[in-house]
Amino acid sequence: MAVGAVFAVVAGVAPASAAGSDPLAAPPKVHGPEAQVSIMAGSRPVSGSAPSAGPKFTKSGTQWRVIAPEAVLRNTVTDADGDKSTLTFEVWTVKADGTPNTKVKLTDANPYGVLVSPYTASGSLASVKVDYGVLKPRTQYMFHTNAFDGSLYETNWSPWTKFTIEPYVTFPVAQSTSGIDPVAQTTVEFTRTDPDGSATIALPSAASEPTLSDFAKDDCSKPDKQDRRVCFTLDKSSKDKAKRSKAPKPGKTRETRQTFTDASAAAAEGSPTPGGNDAVDLVDWCTNAADGLDYMNRTEACLKDLGEGELYFFDSDPQKPAIGRGTFLFEQRMKTYRNKSESGSDFAEFDQQLVIIPTYIDPALQGVTMKWDVASSCSSCDVAPIQWTDDGANPTAGAHWSYDPTSDYSGRWGTVVTRWTGTGKEQIDLDWSITASVDASNSLDATAEFGSSGIDAVRELAPRCDDITRGAVTPGCVFPFFRPTFTVDTNLYPAAGAYYWLMQERMPDHAGSKKWDSLLHYLGPDTTVKNPSTGAAWSSDDSRKVVCPTTWSKHPADPIVGSTDCDEYAPASTHESGGFPGGINQVTDGSKCAQLYTDWAFNGVGDGSTSFGLFADTRTATNGPTGSERCGRAAIDSAQNQGAFSKLQPSVWRLLDKDGFFVDTPGFNHCSGTTTTCIWRKS
To answer: Which DSSP string do the residues of 589-601 spell out, in sequence order?
Structure first.
């Protein structure tokens, strides 16, 4: 402190009059008059030239973006004498031309309405925190500072700096109507992990005719009495090579853009199934899916990239071309039923269908018969005989075609029904092959492998059947490989949707985000994790109590916000919840999560889409969320908190423990990140 600082405040001296409405007026003598001795002997303190506002003390353009109504204003202060000093902070609103407009009364603690920092060491940052409710969100402010070292005042103000309290996200009042279907799904394209077994022959080019020596032994029959053989292979169509090169990697998926019409198939450079129609197709939309790709959803699979079958008939000379050949297109369908209302059965059921379309049969073959072989790992299944029909849904005696030069050959549609009669749950691995024979010899047949339901690590086409799904009154089956998307209705629940979107953007694992391809995993009734206190299976209530205990207190908010609840993300019903023991995001308590809350944010401008906002709750983490938090805890409108996930019913997708799913927030997907405020859009 400068010499004579003890005289800094003289008893009985009245304070100077309050500053008026002139932003250029001299700084107020908040601490009283200067001591005369100090004026003669001391050095005046100096404010820094770069005042800042936060949290998080980051600029958006030329102004500071503040993420909480309790703005923290700061500036450096130095004193040549090394004295500790304090800063006075004065805040004004801003005119359209960028100049000061109206002075803001920050406190009643002094007649000037300014805030004064504690004393701080020379060269350090001095700061003040504005009380909640003093500053309005989405209103531009500017402030400057003036220093005092206990004896002397800085003679001028620091440079101005501008700031605005900007929420992470803004959104309107909940809409009264919405067209969003939270459980609607988009069919995906995928690539099989085990598409075929022995059918791996690389046939000669079209310019040459294959001979028996070109084929692997396993692809051909044993010789008949006349030393003739048939060879049967399955190969991918060369015309779909370019399309296949752009398909997802094996075990991965991509939402299709097709609408499953003739036009969409053509747009995808494909064609519908020849002869296909709703009367025969097990999966009605599959007929019009473009060939050369495979598709699926939670209950159906449409395999249109099985390939083309080549059947060759050879005589005894291995170096001679075939004496006859036949070519065939193959497709496959699979359909699971989630409950009795879909299957009509008291048991869980899934059906399979093979489509065979002859494209050429040489007269030397006289005719061709195909036998479909289906192998299963099921321990408790009742498998019905395969039923075959033609394109007109007329029953046929198997898959057989006699040589007929006068007309096109009709396809054959073979369907097999499997009913699961077990208890608990079972995922069923499948394996397929086709055995071909010719009428020209009653002892020749060759088999081509069609692959399996997938490698052990993926099992993309292995249906799972169960009788333990929550809310399901009858057994059912699904494809657990397909990860459904729950779409938060951001029209009806904009506050909740804003919060989930923000957490997906900021959490290290981006839990549930389709953008980041990061799944949530359901906490099902079959979990093996136990509550150590009760010995019962760990539940969503157990997780919720960790993140949102009864001791949680909500942040103050404008009364217009109404009732709010503690809402956690990731959801308590998932393994990614901060409360789930041993999970990737486990925390000891909810204070370790990102703290957020909903508040009124309307500044009188706009269409109402910015009426409310999501702000940082800085009562504990004074600088707001860091982005490294593994979970979120927010005060969200009670009705929205309770309604946003109300349609995530496990029975809809037969969700069991560790089943993956995404959460989509369409009203905010247009936003590229969190560096600027994301503004809701109606979906």
So the answer is: SGGGSEEEEEEE-
| Cα–Cα distance, 355 to 392 (Å, whole number) | 13
CA distances from 395 to 323, 380, 439, 481 (A): 32, 29, 21, 33
Q: Which tokens sit at 331? A: 């497709």
What confidence tier does 372 reach under pLDDT thresholds 50, 70, 90? Answer: very high
* Per-residue pLDDT tens over the stretch 83-112: 999 999 999 999 999 999 999 999 999 999
Give the pLDDT band of residue 38 (cuts 50, 70, 90).
low
Percentage with pLDDT > 90 across the chain = 84
Per residue in 168-188, pLDDT tens?
999 999 999 999 999 999 999
φ, ψ of residue 273 to 5 degrees: the values are -70, 125
Only one residue has tokens 């048991």, namely 347
| Interacting residues of 119 by C-beta distance below 8 A, sequence separation 6+ | 84, 85, 86, 150
Where does 533-636 have alpha helices with state H? 540-547
pLDDT in tens, 312-331: 999 988 889 999 999 999 99
> Given CA atoms 606, 608, 609, 613 in this order, what sign does their dihedral have?
positive
For residue 651, CA distances in Å to 44, 467, 476, 539, 663 come to 73, 11, 9, 17, 17
What Cα–Cα distance (Å) separates residue 571 from each residue in 27, 381, 521, 627? 52, 36, 10, 18
Reduce the secondary structure of 39-97 to three states and give it as a string: HHHCCCCEECCCCEEECCCEEECCEEEECCCCCEEEEEEECCCCCCEEEEEEEEEECCC
> What contacts 200, CB < 8 A, 6 or more positions away?
216
Name the nearest CA neighbour of 457 among 190, 246, 250.
250
Looking at residue 160, the DSSP 8-state letter turns out to be: P
CB within 8 A of 517, min separation 6: which ones?
none
Bridging pattern class, strands 425-427 and 395-396: unpaired
Output b/e per residue, 327-353; b: 16+ Cβ within 10 A.
ebbbbbbbbbbbbbeebebebbbbbbb
Residue 327 β-bridge partners: 310, 360
* 19 pLDDT higher than 70: no
* Among 91, 93, 87, CA closest to 122: 87
Q: Count CB neighbours of 108 within 10 A.
A: 7
C-beta neighbour count of 458 within 10 angstroms: 17
Residue 206 tokens read as 């079209």
- Contact criterion met (CB below 8 Å) for 495 and 612: yes
Beta bridge partners of 124: 77
Q: What is the per-residue pLDDT across 182-241, written as a single tens digit (0 to 9) for each?
A: 999 999 999 999 997 444 444 444 447 899 989 989 999 999 999 999 999 988 777 667
Beta bridge partners of 667: none
Taking a C-beta distance cutoff of 8 angstroms, is the pair 476, 339 a contact?
A: yes
Give CA–CA dist 536/132, Å, rounded: 44
CA distances from 444 to 221, 225, 435, 601 (A): 6, 10, 10, 79
| Spatial contact of 484 and 520, defined as CB atoms under 8 Å apart | no
d(CA 361, CA 368): 8
Contact partners, residue 246, CB within 8 Å, separation at least 6: none
- φ/ψ region of 497 (left if φ > 0, alpha if ψ in -120 to 50, else beta) reads alpha
Peptide bond into 56 cis (omega under 30): yes
Structure tokens at 564: 């709010």
Neighbouring C-alpha atoms within 13 Å toward the C-beta of 423: 0
CA quadruple 438, 442, 447, 453: dihedral sign: positive
